[in-house]
Amino acid sequence: MPNAISIPKDIAHHAKRDNITILFMGRIERKKGIHDLIEAGKLLADKFRFKIILCGEGNISLWQEECSNKGLIDVIQFRGWVSGEEKELLLRETDIYVLPSYSEGLPMSILEAMSYGIPVISTPVGGVPEVVIDGINGFLVDPGDVHGLADKLEQLISDYRLRMKMGITGRQFAQEKFDISNNIKQLMNIYARLL
């Protein structure tokens, strides 16, 4: 059985706004692509209005210092570990989800973002290419490709319709493949056949 998530029933379509919210959820460390995301943010900071919210644990003070040195204190926020209602509220306010990891399994955070109708930018590692279909419900960039990451972020930041289209496609994909209620039905059918 694949990973399963609870699909939110009542997501409002993301409003068109000037100040874009970009979200990362995971361990705050280099192998998760944090350095690359900060560098991509630096490349775009003078061109667009956006904020990057980093959620997770790690050596936060080290990364805050790097952001400060790059003049990104007003652009990049560190929220620490989030869960429950706080995480749900963040997902409802997010326009783009980014996970530029160097290695992964099948990240639940990507499935959660898709279930909220958020387009995803990630890397073709582990099980990610099974869920992020490049150019359809998000973008894939090679690990460490800062300019590629910045380019895909720029495309989504500047194109509301593309964000909406990819987000809707991703939500439909998550509903079809990873909705926990569907998985429970499939599991019950398997048990019924075995009995």
Ranges where pLDDT stays below 50 over 5 or more residues in a row are none
Globally, the shape reads globular
Q: Please state the structural category.
A: alpha/beta
Can you write the helix and strand succession as a string?
Answer: EHEHEHEHEHEHHH
Number of domains: 1
Q: Summarize the amount of helix as a percent range.
A: 40-55%
Report strand order across the widest sheet. Answer: 3-2-1-4-5-6
CATH topology: Rossmann fold
What gyration radius follows from the Cα positions, in whole Å? 17 Å
Strands, total number = 6
CATH C-level category: Alpha Beta
Features:
about 200 residues, alpha/beta, Rossmann fold, 6-stranded parallel beta sheet, globular
Question: How is this structure best described in words?
Answer:
This protein has eight helices and six strands. With 195 residues, the chain is α/β, with parallel strands linked by helices. It has a six-stranded parallel beta sheet with strand order 3-2-1-4-5-6, with helices on both faces. The longest helix is centred in the C-terminal third of the chain and has 19 residues, at 160-178. The protein has a single domain, classed as Rossmann fold (3-Layer(aba) Sandwich). The radius of gyration is 17 Å and the shape is globular. It has helices at residues 34-44, 60-69, 84-93, 108-115, 128-131, 146-158, 160-178, 180-194; strands at residues 20-25, 50-55, 76-80, 96-99, 120-122, 138-140.
